[in-house]
Amino acid sequence: MRLPNVSSLCAELFEQLLEIAYSATVNEIGLARIEKNAEEAKDSDPLNFLFIKAAASCLKGDEDLCRKYHMQAIAFEARVESYYNFAVSLSRLGRLLESLEYVQKAMNLAPTDEGIAEFKKSLLDRIEDQMWDDMDNDSDEFLTEVCMSSFHIGDAHA
Hints:
By secondary structure, the chain is an all-alpha fold.
């Protein structure tokens, strides 16, 4: 997650969120404390407040609230961080294809940003791995049927 023009309070809360995000288990009490403390920044730093609320919701696995806060952030200010942060949350929630859509929007605004490009590449790698894993679980008959349905036999445009 990235925070633009961050206040000291939001920077501190962001660091706390990162610790929780990379720990083995999600600390619900710590998340509740972060969300409560973020309320102080609601008026003075509204965009970063929304990012922190979205990230906390994501870490709790509350996809609906996570989406709500990210969409509010995008409506408030559609900037690189708004799209990138939503892409990171969607990825963490397992919504890889939708995440790809938002990381592309971030890249459109910052085409030379190496961090965003790296995230997009890792996302594409995860999507490809997932595709191959899914194919490993499919029967040969199903895969043949999918391939055959892709061809329109007798179609004048084929």
